[in-house]
Design brief:
By secondary structure, this protein is an alpha+beta fold. 42% of the residues lie in helices and 14% in strands. Strand 1 (9-11) and strand 2 form a beta hairpin. Helix 2 packs across helix 4 (51-75), helix 4 (51-75) packs across helix 9 and helix 6 packs across helix 10.
């Protein structure tokens, strides 16, 4: 069943006013189609000529995101009351320091964390993608955790893992059953200085990014009740996020 958005007027590239309710005939399959067309035509001329399709895709994704925020709040009270603006992103890329000058992102994402996306706390991130970018063919991303945490947070987190009598490992075993794995892209070759390289949890101390990831295909995205199914999967990652956010909160209290 499709959700209906509160009526909100947008001005199309042709100058006529359109509402989000008028756009909500757009399906998630059409959102993917738009993102893939944008991937192949990532320039301002094409985007402005297809602004109506973008607004339709944006309205559909925003409706999904609003429902997802509400559903996550049912099992994680730390994110209750967040608005859509607190958790979503503009489609325009910041190209100032990038060799890739493509003006638009080819994914739409939502990040649900305590205090909103700029708070610095770990949270639940999900995006739908064009499927032909850095995330792989027909791959849409689940992520739960912290990306490139502050060095002080990393130290506290590693201390917790080293001295935690296996509590971190137990959490990981639970989330692996749901298909999530730690992102090892930036994993160190050696245990950081000051920690026991022979300890039972030494391998976990080598991570620089403490983030769980999983990927799903188009079939997952286009099936009914997407927000419910995404929230149900994220529920398993809450103990992991609680573990990370405890370290983040501790560092902030000590600052």
């Amino acid at each position: 069943m499709r959700h209906r958005l509160p009526t909100k007027k947008y001005k199309s590239h042709a100058g006529r006013h359109l509402s989000t309710t008028a756009f909500y005939a757009c399906t998630m399959k059409e959102v993917l189609t738009f993102l893939r067309q944008l991937q192949m035509n990532n320039n301002r001329e094409w985007f402005h000529a297809h602004k109506d399709e973008y607004l339709a895709a944006q309205a559909t994704f925003n409706a999904f995101a609003e429902e997802l925020i509400e559903r996550i709040g049912r099992f994680d009270e730390s994110v209750r009351g967040l608005s859509l603006k607190d958790c979503t992103y503009r489609i325009y890329r910041d190209t100032r320091f990038s060799k890739d000058k493509s003006p638009y992102k080819t994914h739409m994402g939502v990040y649900v964390c305590p205090g909103g996306k700029k708070s610095g706390f770990s949270g639940y991130y999900f995006h739908v993608s064009s499927g032909v970018d850095q995330f792989g063919i027909n791959s849409h991303l689940f992520a739960a955790g912290d990306y490139m945490a502050d060095s002080r947070v990393l130290r506290v987190l590693r201390e917790d893992i080293e001295n935690g009598d296996g509590d971190f490992e137990a959490i990981l075993k639970q989330v692996r059953r749901k298909g999530f794995l730690l992102d090892d892209e930036f994993r160190l070759k050696r245990v950081p200085k000051g920690f026991n390289p022979e300890g039972p949890y030494a391998d976990y101390l080598k991570y620089k990014v403490y983030c769980l990831v999983d990927y799903v295909d188009d079939e997952f995205i286009t099936a009914p009740d997407l927000a419910k199914r995404v929230a149900d999967r994220f529920r398993a990652t809450k103990p992991f996020l609680d573990y990370l956010n405890r370290a983040i909160a501790y560092v902030r209290e000590e600052m």
